[in-house]
Amino acid sequence: MEVSAEGATAAPRPVRIRRAAAAALGFAAAFALLYAGAFPCVFAKLTQHPCPGCGSTRSVLALLHGDLHGVLAFNPFGPAIAMLLGILGVQTLVSLLRWGDVRDAASGRMGDIMKRLLLVLAVLEVVLWIARFLGMFGGPVPVAD
Fold this sequence. Notes:
There is one protein chain. The chain has helices spanning 13-35, 42-47, 56-64, 68-74, 78-99, 108-133. By secondary structure, it is mostly helical. The protein has one domain (13-133). α3 (56-64) runs antiparallel to α4 (68-74) and α5 packs antiparallel against α6. The model has no long low-confidence stretch (mean pLDDT 91).
């Protein structure tokens, strides 16, 4: 049985495997729903204006199809945020397999770097959002139906 630096022990192996499998299924379901466009932007639905993150999913899909113009047009920061969230997902699964909980996810030096990068990207998304409403960079991203 593994013991963490704080003295906490890991959950039994079957529990860890069950929890990691449930998380992996949850991640896969969320990815499938995002890919299918099943998560509408609540901000955009209520205001008929894009939110700072609008276009992120379309941007990632454009990148997967090799459409760099689409990445820039929808949300140039979307793929970077998706990559960081993917790394966080992998860290979460590893922590679940190792301990049975998420104590190691986004921890340590790599976790600190990821948190800072996510904060910087979020600020950049807001700055880009404001700039687009001021008519720069092709104007606001169209709200997806």
